[in-house]
Amino acid sequence: MPYTSNLFGTFYSLNKVNKDNPIVFIHGVGLNHEIWKPQIDFFKEYNTLTYDLLGHGKTPLSKLKVTFNDFSRQLLNLINELKFKKIHLVGFSLGALVARYFASKYNDRLCSLIIHASIYKRTEEQKRVVINRFNVAKLNRPASKKSALTRWLTEDYISKNPEIYKEIYSMLENNSNKNFLKSYELFTHYNDDDDEIKKINVNTLITAGEHDVRSTPEMARNLNKVIKNSKFVKIKKGKHLCSIECADDVNITFKEFIDNNNA
């Protein structure tokens, strides 16, 4: 798996099987491109591209602060270097915010957009909770990572899939905490800009896990009202990482939407 030659030095994994427009997946904060394994396995007959965001996995981050413009430019440079004129873009959590920002700037580069498990218009209480979590994360203790995983996956799934739990925990553990905090701070203090969101002009699917307490179905429904040409689908029984726990439902939902928007 190579790196881009540009200044971002993005680490990526490309499965190219034909000349169709690829599906590009953007992971969430503290994770890396490997979180999309259930989707990459499912879409093995499609062109797929996953990569590590700045400061995650094997992609470096030298700046003291990171912005959504940095993340957007990283993605633009990546698809330009790989000579993809158009893509289907899928973003999860922080990656969903990156995808939203990118779509507001570069509608012409997208065949479709999937916003998965995205925050939108957090209440004051929700803001307070995420600020507290950020302050705990600064201490870099195991309890913070374990707490995240119990928010992301159901207890039943964790008990039946200890190896997957360990793999995801390892992703969180192996990240540079200094760089993780740069992205987490950006996420923590994020404020939605409806004027920016309304610039999104591409067919959009908005999905959320039924039991996601962080990026709730209510947030997704409200976002659906702001983005024209969008639709909302609730993933039954899922929490934040329903792309893993409810992979079959998520994959079928994504596939149907992408197939309907293949140019």
Average pLDDT:
95
Q: Any idea what the radius of gyration is? A: 17 Å
Structural class: alpha/beta
Order of strands across the main sheet = 1-3-2-4-5-6-7
End-to-end separation: 28 Å
Q: Runs with pLDDT <50, length 5+?
A: none
Share of β-strand residues: 5-15%
The total of helices stands at 12
The helix-strand sequence is EEHEHEHEHHHHHHEHEHH
Helix content: 40-55%
Quick structural gist:
This protein is an alpha/beta fold. It is 46% helix and 14% strand.
Mind sketching the topology for me?
Elements: E1 12-15, E2 23-26, H1 37-42, E3 48-51, H2 68-81, E4 87-92, H3 94-105, E5 110-116, H4 124-137, H5 142-152, H6 155-160, H7 162-174, H8 177-188, H9 194-197, E6 204-209, H10 217-226, E7 230-235, H11 242-245, H12 247-260
Parallel strand pairs: 2-3, 2-4, 4-5, 5-6, 6-7
Antiparallel strand pairs: 1-3
